[in-house]
Each structure stands twice: as structure tokens, then as C-alpha cells.
# Entry
Amino acid sequence: MPKKILIINGSPKKDGNTTVMVEWFKQGAASKGADVEIVRSAFLKYKTPGCISCRACQKSAKYECCIEDEAKPVLAKMAEVDVIVFATPLYFFGPSAQLKLIFDRMFSLYKWDNDAGTMETPLTGKTLVLLASAFEDIGLDVLEKPFALTAQYTMMKFESVLVANAGVSGEIAKKWPKTREKVIAIGSDIAQQ
Ligand SMILES: Cc1cc2nc3c(=O)[nH]c(=O)nc-3n(C[C@H](O)[C@H](O)[C@H](O)COP(=O)(O)O)c2cc1C
# Structure
């Protein structure tokens, strides 16, 4: 069965460094027959500014976000795929706000029973990948932390490619030609796992 991979590109730049990394990853994964879908989270139409903590998802029998907008089917897709890739530029030592608009709404993919002290999610066993770049070489470790911890908490495998000193949008390919091979190889490896 070909691997199903969902990539959330959280950069507002259509041809920036994040998009270059996403295309490299896709190239590697597609070369091994993976079914790859890319979503640009900056360009979805949202009904609310991110997760509004309505908790309707916790009352639903399904793993679904109850906000009816263009992010809802993307979240549903996360529960179906084998691999979720988050791609983002470093914005003030964290992920972009555009990525967080989707990331926080993953709350709907968990069910907590506080009395029993249990948590269940269809994300367990999947792979979470982080692709990120920054202009300087400080802060990418901080950016990585919430993704690594989310993977750990969820019992997902975790991989990341972090590119410091990537330059301004679109410069990464010129500045870091070897990163291309690395990201393609990771895409290819993950498609075969
Ligand atoms: C709002 C904003 C905040 C940024 N914050 C940082 C930062 O804290 N540290 C850093 O090294 N680069 C920072 N950058 C630079 C980007 O992270 C970097 O150029 C990235 O590779 C751009 O990816 P993109 O082309 O996909 O947008 C920032 C850029 C913007 C627009």
C-alpha cells in the first residue's frame, strides 16, 4: 500500500524556503510511490482565529473539529494518513501563526477522559515530520520542541529537518544545496517505512 502523506505548509510565501523544502520532501516521497497532498494553511478560509476552545469536539462521538470551515476536512485527513508533515518558517522563535491556525485544532483529534486519566487518538503510531528554516542560527531548537513533544505525547514517530542560516525567502536552495539531497532522502525513506 502506498504511504499517505499530508503536508501542511505554514508559510505565507508561495515560493519561499518552506515551499522549497516541501517540494523536496514531496519529490522524495513521490519517487517511492507515496500519495502526497499539500495544504497551504495560510490560504484556507477560517471561520475562527484558530482553536477557540469550544470543546464541542470532546462531546462529539467522532474525532472531528466542530468548526465548519476549510480546516475541518484537513484535520479529518490527518486522522487518515500515515504521515503528517508540518513545514514552517521560524517566526520569532516559534512556528508561523498560519501553521498554528491548524496545529492547535488538532485538539479535536484527541479524546480525554479526565476521570479515568486516559487519552485516545487515531494519531498514535503515525509519523510526524517537521521541516523548518530560519534566517539566523538561533531558535530552531525552541521551534522544534512543541512538535517533538506532541509526537512523544501522541506516541508518533518523529523526524525533523531544521535549516539555520537559510537566508531570505527562496534562498535556501542556493545557500544549502546539500540540504536538497537530505530532504529528498528523508521523504523517500519515510515513504518506504
Ligand atoms: C515575521 C517573521 C519573523 C521571523 N523571525 C525570525 C526569527 O526569529 N529568527 C530567524 O532566524 N529568522 C526569522 N525570520 C526569517 C525566516 O524564518 C526565514 O527567512 C525563513 O527561511 C523564511 O521561510 P519562507 O521563505 O518560507 O517564509 C522571520 C521572518 C519573518 C517574516
